Amino acid sequence: MNFSPSASANTVTCFMGTAFLLALLGGFLSDSYLTTYCIYVISAITQLLGLLILTLQAHSSSLQPPVLISATRNRRATPSSRPTRTTLPNTTFLDRAISDPPGPHDDPQYSPWLHCTVSQVEDSKSVLRTLPIFASTVMLNCCLAQLSTFSVQQAATMDTRLVGTTFRVPPASLPVFPVLFVLILAPVYNHVILPFFSRRDTGSEPGITHLQRIGTGLGFSVLAMATAALVETKRKRAAARSGLAGSTEPIPITFLWVALQYLFLGSADLFSLAGQMEFFFSEAPAGMRSLATSLSWASLAVGYYLSSVLVGLVNWATGRLPGGPWLRGSNLNRYRLERFYWLMCGLSGLNLLQYVFWARRYRYRAAAEGGGGGGRGEEEDGDEGGA
After folding, report:
1. Compositionally biased, Acidic residues: which spans (predicted)?
2. Disulfide-capable partner of 280 in 168, 290, 292, 308 (CB 3.0 to 4.6 Å)?
3. What local confidence, expressed as pLDDT, does residue 79 receive?
4. Summary count for the chain: helices (H), strands (E)
5. What is the spatial distance between Cα 323 and Cα 243, in angstroms, rounded to a whole number?
């Protein structure tokens, strides 16, 4: 659609962020009004219609938004004759909400906004205690957003032929790599990793706690961004050696180098997404589990939005430097993409450190309800540091 690499990346991340954010609405409707099956059907039909409209819009220039907007704004003008071309430690303050109602619920003095039960307050605490964990996963999903944006654009400038063949792989199909890696790694995870950890006393029935899974995924995201930066450096050096830095011709370096960052990000997704969904489901109140599970997709949405914000902030901050913005222009070879990846690596490392801070202090809902301040809860807290 004639976008620059950075503009197209922001468009994709904003679209994906909006799509994932709607999972919160689906979870709320599923818990409150409709059944889960109805939400699945409605969501599938809505997405199918959206894809059909997007396909028609991309195919026909007369259906693209700029044309429609321009036609609306200029509706009074004379038509042109040109033809068109076809864990929170301080939640005790919430206890103040607990009070005995002055009378029955039909009493005029009764208000659900002023009088809460113990179970309502404890459910609120459970939700609030998960928010730091939720916030810690946003940066990981910001890294995952690079799979469908800059990573694809990197591969498009490289030799996309399979080794030993003349078949060229479409760059847009590269996001299938993390799916393949997950299909390969999932049996290894279930039959090798979990049995290994089950020999340790982690206090978790499957052998590894939910928070440890999320922490492992965050660690893989740091490795993925470092790998992406190194691969981009290698790609630009190959372009300089071959004299193609200012050209749009394919660089004589195989696109399979990009698969390395897909491998690490696929591993991060394998650990973190499963850990998030199980964590939010088990820690949420019974009546909010569908909504809580959708927090995993909300984290993806915020991560995609954050990617768009970061690209804009990086261009704004580096625009005053002698070399100009890092991520602006139509030629990816002129970008400072490796610096952007190193920035993402550093932010992911800081995010991992603050996640460990919260995870070590988090007490699981079952331990908090069953053991009070017992030692078992402290043991579980200590285990999270291994994430």
Report:
1. 378-387
2. 292
3. 46
4. 15, 2
5. 20
